[in-house]
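Exercise 7.
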Amino acid sequence: MTVKNQKESLKFKKSERERYSRQMIITNWGEETQKKIKSSKVFIAGAGGLGSPVSINLAVAGVGTIRICDYDCLVLSNLNRQFLHNDSRIGMNKARSAKMTLEGLNPDVVVEAVEEKITEENIDDLIGDSDLVIDCMDNYPTRYLINATAVKKKIPMIHGGIWGLEGMVTFFHHPETPCLACIFPDAPPQEVFPVLGATPGITGSIQAMEALKYLGKQGTLLKGRILWCDYSEMSFKEVKIKKNPDCPVCSV
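Solution. The predicted structure, written as tokens, is:
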């Protein structure tokens, strides 16, 4: 893209100015921050419980390009929490369904649906030149692949996790912070875990908030700390985390 075309692409249409008017009056936000948001490309791994609030919040905020990746197809038991989708799309690939929903919410964003399983062979190309990676997966083997690639490319990654009525969020950015393998060196056993829909709804929204702050260069990020959320008690605590000097991923 030429410099002229790039400048043209960052111009706001009248409808965009109206759509984003309430966030553009936030202190220190304005048009310049909105341009940063519009020029950004985000890779979202997973179009499920966490991917639903993450992608919806980014789309309505005006993130320019959203690449959302999910290999699975929708089943009925997903619908207590995965509100990107609906009953009429049962059996449809989740990334394709996500694209339909997000484009319906904001036609001014580019949504790329990736209907591929994330593997060691394709993860580098899938993340590509994204400005940010958001981990919305539900299995650790895939999370570790994403983490290793984010470390290699030095692209920040926002990690979220849920269980029942609990959630957690942290912000990784090599070499400044620890990585996922530093704090979770061993994967927990794969199993069907309990979850109430509001749990990923809140947790994913926190991930989206971190993403928009990073892309817009606003506020303080969850670097070097995990936000633990216990929704049963509605209590939140912060846990400091440090690099593992022997981490096989980020210390080499």
